[in-house]
TrEMBL record:
Annotated InterPro entries: Cell_Envelope_Assoc, DUF218, Rossmann-like_a/b/a_fold
UniProt keyword list: Membrane, Transmembrane, Transmembrane helix
One protein family per Pfam: DUF218
Protein name, UniProt field: DUF218 domain-containing protein
GO biological process, one term: Gram-negative-bacterium-type cell wall biogenesis
GO cellular component, one term: plasma membrane
Annotated source species: Auraticoccus monumenti
Transmembrane segments: 6-21, 33-51, 57-81, 93-119, 125-149, 345-365
Length: 369
């Protein structure tokens, strides 16, 4: 009972901070870790206080811990199978190999404790294995926080107001045709523009090396022909045709929108609605801070990182996602996770070492003693 009260005293302030931070600015990945920490503390408090349902929670958590090696094995097998499918369907690029490599890495991690137990390893080798396992545990915790908040974030911004919507481009099939993945983004962009009453819809994407035209132009044409956007009615349709990265998509779109006449976002009409327009780059701009709230549309696996990037650029926009083929999701999510880690590499190196080094150091000290 007393232990449960201590957990509760920790859970309450952490939960308050988590909720306050998330409500104030949902476009922060750190919100996910605050919420995860609050949930874990709350579960411990619930169990420690012996409240109704605590027995079931203890049983579920205990069962998950006991079965965790089996669950990790199942996950590893599924990732390997998905990796093989990705290679067959998408080719052997590094990004397409991520799920396969992750699955094989999990199999190696599962085997390492067995080797430590069944063989007479020296303390330095045992310490090395522990460092790898604990570092993997840290990365796993970060991945859980990333996955959990990636799921939660779009649900937090469902009713976010938007005066404009931008659809992020992706590669064209055969250099000129909209792919199913990109078509899904366009369709969601058109739907969200209507649902949120946005005055402007922007298609953003430049021309790749192997593409016959800018992605934005192909997207706009598809939206008018097959995406449900009716020429002569609806929002002002703009194309941003110079960007090649997500950052450029957002930055160039914000510059374009900042150059529109005052009131244009709320009352489209400078050009006939449903017409494709690409405002000149020479328009005087006030900067992203002068923009009305907007919405970024990408694929579901990319939503959180797009929202985080919009915040970093000072663009007042939330993000929503279009569905992605299931077989494509594991590698795509892992790619986004790696990109998130790469944004603050030294932070994760330091935290990972703080988690991974103490126990191996103790093993070495006791082994030498």
């Amino acid at each position: 009972m007393v232990e449960g009260l201590w957990w509760l005293l920790l859970a309450l302030p952490v939960g308050w901070v988590a909720v306050r931070r998330t409500r104030a600015e949902p476009r922060r990945l750190s919100n996910g870790f605050w919420l995860l920490a609050a949930a874990l503390l709350a579960l411990n408090a619930l169990v420690g206080l012996g409240l109704p349902g605590s027995g079931v929670i203890s049983l579920v958590v205990g069962g998950a811990l006991v079965l965790s090696p089996l669950l990790v094995l199942v996950l590893a097998v599924l990732l390997v199978a998905n990796g093989v499918q990705m290679v067959r369907k998408e080719g052997r690029s590094l990004g397409n190999l991520l799920s396969l490599m992750a699955g094989l890495a999990l199999l190696v991690l599962l085997a390492s404790p067995v080797l430590v137990i069944t063989t007479d390893m020296s303390p330095p080798v045992v310490a090395g294995v522990l460092i790898v396992l604990l570092a993997a545990a840290y990365l796993g915790f970060v991945l859980v926080g990333f996955l959990g908040y990636s799921w939660l974030y779009p649900r937090l911004v469902r009713r976010h107001p938007a005066a404009w919507v931008v659809v992020l481009g992706s590669g064209l099939s055969g250099g000129e045709r909209v792919t199913p993945l990109l078509a899904g983004r366009i369709r969601v962009g058109v739907q969200q523009t209507a649902a949120r009453g946005a005055g402007v819809l922007v298609m953003s994407g430049g021309r790749g090396r192997d593409e016959a035209l800018p992605e934005a132009e192909a997207m706009a044409a598809w939206a008018l022909a097959e995406g449900g956007l009716v020429r002569g009615s609806g929002p002002l349709l703009l194309t941003e045709t110079t960007s090649t990265t997500t950052e450029e998509n957002l930055r160039h779109t914000a510059e374009m929108l900042s150059g529109l006449p005052a009131g244009e976002l709320a009352h489209p009409g400078a050009a006939p609605t449903g017409t494709v327009v690409n405002p000149p780059a020479s328009v005087e701009r006030d900067g992203p801070s002068s923009l009305a709230p907007g919405l970024v549309v990408s694929s579901d696996y990319h939503v959180l990182r797009a929202a985080i990037l919009a915040r970093q650029l000072g663009i007042p926009a939330q993000a929503v996602g279009a569905p992605t083929a299931r077989y494509f999701l594991p590698s795509a999510v892992l790619r986004e996770y790696v990109a998130v880690l790469a944004e603050r590499p030294w932070l994760h190196v330091v935290l990972g070492l703080l988690v991974a080094l103490p126990l191996p150091a103790l093993v070495l000290l006791t082994g030498q003693g």
